[in-house]
Structures are given as C-alpha cells and as structure tokens.
Amino acid sequence: MFTTAVIGFCITAITISIQVFFDYRSDIAEINTRFNEIENSHINSLSSVVWALDEPLIKLNLSSLLGMSEIEYLEIVSDNNSKWVAGTPVSGEALERIFQLTINHNGESKQFATLRIQASISKVYAGLFAHTMQRLLSIGILIFCVIGAIYILFRRTVTRHLDKLAMHAALIELDGKTSPFKLDRVKSPGRLDELDTVVDAINGMIEKVAETSEGLRNSEERYRAAFESSHDAIITTDGSGKILNWNNAAITIFGYTSPEAVGQSIDILVKQDTRIKAENIGERWFRTSAGNDDTVVEIKAVTKNDEEVFVDVSTSSWSVNGDDFLTVTIRDVTRRKLAEEDQSKLSEQLRQAQKMEAVGQLTGGIAHDFNNILAIVIGNLEIGMDVIGKDSSATEHFEMAMKGSERAAILTKRLLGFSRRDSAETKVTLVNEFILDLKDLVKRTLTSAITVETWLADDLWPVVIDPHELEEALLNLSINARDAMPDGGVLSIETENKVLDDHYVKSHPGGMAGEFVMITVQDSGTGIDSANLEKVFEPFFSTKETGKGTGLGLSMVYGFVQRSKGHINIYSVPGEGTAFRMFLPRASTDAKPSMPPEVIDEKAPTGTETVLIVDDESNLVRVTEIFMSSLGYKTLTASNGRKAMEIIESDTPVDMLFSDVVMPGGIDGYHLADLARAHRPGLKVLLTSGFTPKKKYNDFDHYSFDQELQNSLLTKPFNRRELAVSLRKILDKA
Questions:
Q1: Is pLDDT above 80 for 98?
Q2: How far apart are CA 433 and CA 431, in angstroms?
Q3: Residues 620 and 664 in one domain
Q4: Same domain, 615 and 576
Q5: Does residue 395 belong to any structural domain of this protein?
Q6: How confident is the model at residue 315 (pLDDT cuts 50, 70, 90)?
Q7: 97, 337, 499, 669: which could join 310 in a potential S-S bond, CB 3.0 to 4.6 Å?
Q8: 686: pLDDT confidence band, cut at 50, 70 and 90?
Q9: For 566, phi and psi rounded to 5 degrees?
Q10: Where are the alpha helices (DSSP H) in 95-179?
Q11: Helix, strand, coil shares of the chain as percentages rounded to 5?
Q12: Could you say which of 332, 362, 388 is where a domain stops?
C-alpha cells in the first residue's frame, strides 16, 4: 500500500509537476500571445492615435490593453518626452516587451515613440506553487485522479478551443478581411456557455476593428484626395514655420517637390525684407493668424526659380499637447494681379489719348478760325503794300504788321503741328545723316556753355517721316534743354536700333511692339518733377517764366511722333537732367531715301485761266480774288458748296475749282470736289484750309483722286507767291 501510495504520490507529484509545467508554459505562452496580439493587432492603431496626439483615444487604448490577462503595466514615451501609463510597474520578476511606434511619412517609416509592456512572472510562480501545494496536501491521490480527469476533460472541451481562439485572435488584421471564429464542437441547440460568450466577443471585436479600419481608411483617403486635388497650395507647418506637409498645388505654384520642401522653413517662399530681422516669416504668420484665421492677406512670394508670384494667404492654427501647428492655404492670384495692372495701364493710356484727342480738336478748331483771319490780314497787307508802293512812308508800318502776322502764322502752325493727324510730306529719311547736317544749327541755338555730343549707331535703320517735322522736333527739344541748363551743361543726341516686345508694351503705356529707331535727346539740366511729367506735352503748358516760351514746343514734338506712328517716353530726375526718347518705326527694307527737293524759281508764275473761288469767309474771298487777278486769272466766287455747284452745273466756263475744305451747308471741300468732277470730268481742283484732318482713303470712292487732293492741299494763311505756285502746279499737271 505504501508502495502503492508512494507510487500513487509519485504519480500524483509527477502528474501535478507535469501539469504545473504545462500550466507554466501555458501562462508564459499566454503572456507572449498577449504581447503578439498587441503587436499584430494594436500597434498600428495605437501609433496613429499617438501621432495624432489624441489624448482620450490614447487612454482608451491603454485601458483596453490593460484589461488583457497577465498585463500589469503599459507605458508610452514619445520623442518629445510625452508619457502615458496604465497599471502598476512590476516590482518582482517580470516578462517585458518593448515595441517601437512608427508612422509612414512621405513613403518613409519614422519612429516617434516606444511602448513598454510588463507582465508579472512572480505572480505566475506564486499561483503555481499554491495550487500545487493545495493539490499535494489536500487532495491526494483522489484529487490527483480528479485533477487528471478534469485536466483531460478541460483540455478536450476548453483549452484546445481557447488555443485556437488565441491563434485566430492573433491573426486579426486591420484590413477587415479576418473571418469570424467558429468552435469545432457539437453542442445542444440554444445552449450557450462561456466559450460561446468569448467567441461572440472576439467576433464582435473583429467586426468593430473592420468597421473602424474601414472608417479610418475612407477618412484618410478623403483627406488625402482633398489635400492633393486642391487648386490651392495647402501647407502644414509647426509653430516655428517648419514645413510638415506639402501638396501638389504647392509644387505647381512654387516649384519645390515635397522632399525638397518638407523640413524647410516656410521662409523659402518669401523674399527676406531687410527690415525684418528679429523674427522669421513663419513665426510672424503664426502670430498674426492666431485668433484671426479668417483673415486673407495678399503678399508677393517667390518660387524655387526666384520668380515673383502674387498670392492670397490664409492661415489656421491648432495645437496638440501644447505643440502649435499651422495650416497655410495659398492661392496664386498672379494672373488676376497682372490683369488688374494691365487694365490700369490701358485705362491710363486711354485717358491720356482721349485728353490729347480733345486738346487736339480744340487747338485745331482755334487754328482754323485764326488762319482764316490771318489769311485776310496778310493778304490785305500785301495788297496794301502793292498800292502804296515801296517808297511810301507807310511801308515800314506795313512791313512791321506783316512780320507780326507771320509770327502769328508760325504760332498757328505750331498749334496745327500738335493737332493734325498725319504728316504733311513723309519721306524715307536717314536719321544719322539728318542729325549730322542739323548739328551746327542746334549748336547755334544753344549757349557757348552747353556742349553738344552725338552718339550715332552704326547701320541705323531708315524711317519714313516728315524731315521738316523731325527738324522742328529736334530744335524744340534742344531749346527746351537749353532753358533747363541756364549755367551750361551737356546736350547729347543718341540714335539706336530697338526691337520692342510685349513685355516693354506692358511696362510702358502708349508704347508699341516692333522695330524702331530710338532718338534720345538728353540734357544735364534741372529735370522735371513727377507732378509735371504727364502735362509737358499739353499745349500752352510751361514751367518757364512768362515771355520765355509759348508752351507749344513739346506739343509739336508729341504730335510729330504720333503722326509718324511712333511713341515718346520721358525719363527725368530732378537736379540731374531729362531724357526724351522718340521711337520711330523702321521703314520697309525696300524703301529708299528721297532726293532733295527741286529749287523753285523765285518769280511768281501767272496764268489766264478761269478759277472758281469757294469760301464762306467773304473777306478772304476778296483777298484771294485780288491775288488771282494780279496774277492774270479770271475769277468767279461762291460762299458755299451749293452755290458753287450751281455755277459748275451752268454753262459758265471754269478751268479750276479753288475751295476751302471746312464750309457750312453740309458740303465740304472734298465732297464739293467729288461732285464737281462728276459733273465736269477733268476739272482741276485745289483745296485750301486753315485746319482739316486728313481723310482716310476708304472714306472716298476715288482713292487716287482724293489722295492727290490731300497731297496738294494749300495751307492757310498763304501769300501771293504760294498761291501762284500752287495754282500753276495743278493747272499744268497733265
């Protein structure tokens, strides 16, 4: 019996030892299983909530993990020394596991925190020892048999299922593809036990993990899609301005790729202002945005290639665990800004053109009426001098009156030089040769204290202009420079070939793109202040003292350049000088310079033809009639186009029509010429005017005829000789 007892006790001890061994291994395996479960099922989600610094969710996850069997203590420590704990650290022997918490950032795995888990082995030992002693001392062989039977039964009915359940739980994935767990056993229908409860709990957890994972995945996909598809640049920074996130729109606007931008300061997007030294741009944006997240600020940013772009910037600030972050939303408004600037320039250009157009019409109307008066005065003075003879005591007074009238005519001519639309006589001109011929005359108009320099470009392009107008323009600019240098200085005249592009046009209102000859007249004088720069081309505007200028010189220059299809710019610095730059279009490659005009015989030519004089100014008609009679011509008169047509349509012989252009009654000189030629083909026509805009050729039915009329136009006021030459030129033409 003893032997049997010993054998039984040994068997019991061995059995209990074996059971203890297996229980120990099972407990240790269970702990490792918990560790593996945490590693495989919870590390990724825990990493996400710790990275997001979601405090409530972190605590919830730790509490959930602490609820697992054998887990005594959990501790999370981040790189920035933030710490979260659950449970009590194990004082005795413990089984410990450390996991690295990582996040996938821009394709790279970044470790940012550690998770330490402890399970007490001492408790396992204590439990096993107490259980063993209880079995040995209290139960004996009976307990041994019972324990053996229970063990066998438990192993078959419970443990194997728990092992399978643990293995299945270890296989749970966050992608939601884990299948539900099923017990491999036969049981009575409608009967639930603890295993069924555990299985249901595990299956419920699998479903919740799948739902949570799907929600997180969908949320992340929506956020990423919105982040990357936005037309606005979305940039996330920390409180110091270091870039954390960088979307596709930011790449498009600024040229930096995500790897290039992330980690850099947001200062790379802003030109550093020397006035901002104590702080960087990122910090300044953060402080100004705090509490004002709805504020939109327009700034000038710079790209990777140092190109400037106009952007609207709005910011949104947020904090996690005391750390400040900033979301910067940037919209590229460069096109809108440039369009606004272009519109402003166009509006200013249009305003200036309209102003000059109105002033031109005004001065032209004044000149027309004044020229009619001057024509009467000069004509009568010339007739009076013929009547009294050269030896009369009154001849001196007549000559003084004639000189005054001629000065008035010159003044009126200057007004017309500003207001007329086309040059009177354009020719292909070599500007360099013209300037060299004019240089001595320019010097004579200046004082001895002024030095004249010329800088003429080689192979300068020819231009099509009125050379007389260019001469007047250069002389006017020279005189203007002389008055700006009372104590002497340097006047330089420079020529250069210029090709102007669209960029130049955008930055210079009134400018044109194309090939131009640039003529620069620059002085070292007093300069022009900015308030007067826009006014200098207006007629009668002058900063000179009374009696030292009419205010028409620069107006004539402006009119000449406009008629030449060019433009003019002014550059002036008060106290340093002024530069006028005239841009004249390049002539066509096949254009040739014109020959010098023929010398006209000083003797006034005469004639015997009959001339119909048409003008609404009766006094001027009388003067013209006397001039023509003295030259041998027979004359007929009419006060308007309708009365002139009555004579034309009669049988009265008429060799030439001499008509004013601007007349009342609805029939001007061009129209009258057209009607007269229609009734009397071959009729000679000479038109005269104090002021009339050149007609567009497509305004007429007879292109060549009307062009001829414009080219032969006799300008008022005219003297007897000018009238005689013009009459014969038309009458003698085949």
A1: yes
A2: 6
A3: yes
A4: no
A5: no
A6: confident
A7: 337
A8: very high
A9: -115, -160
A10: 121-134, 140-154, 160-170
A11: 50, 20, 30
A12: 332
Domain enclosing residue 724, as ranges: 610-731
User: In whole angstroms, what is the distance from residue 248 CA to residue 235 CA?
Assistant: 10
pTM exceeds 0.70, yes or no: no
CATH classification at residue 701: 3.40.50.2300
| CA dist 81 → 78, 98, 101, 237, 688 (Å) | 5, 16, 14, 21, 99
Looking at the fold, whether 615 and 573 belong to one and the same domain comes out as no
Which amino acid type is present at position 657?
A: L
Residues 6+ apart with CB under 8 A from 522: 481, 491, 492, 494, 577, 578, 579, 580
Do residues 614 and 540 share a domain?
A: no
Q: Is residue 679 part of a domain?
A: yes
Q: What does the pLDDT read at residue 173?
A: 65
Outline where DSSP puts E strands in 122-276: 233-238, 243-246
End-to-end CA gap in the chain: 165
DSSP state of 563: H
Q: Which of 317-321, 549-553, 561-565, 684-688 has the highest mean pLDDT?
A: 684-688
Q: What rounded mean pLDDT belongs to the chain?
A: 76
Q: How many domains does the chain have?
A: 4
- Are 35 and 104 members of one domain? yes
Same domain, 448 and 541: yes
Amino acid at 537: F
pLDDT band at 547 (very low <50, low <70, confident <90, very high): very low
Q: Which residue has the higher pLDDT, 468 or 516?
A: 516
DSSP characters for 352-405? HHHHHHHHHHHHHHHHHHHHHHHHHHHHHHHHHHHHH-TTSTTHHHHHHHHHHH
Average pLDDT of 692-715?
Answer: 58
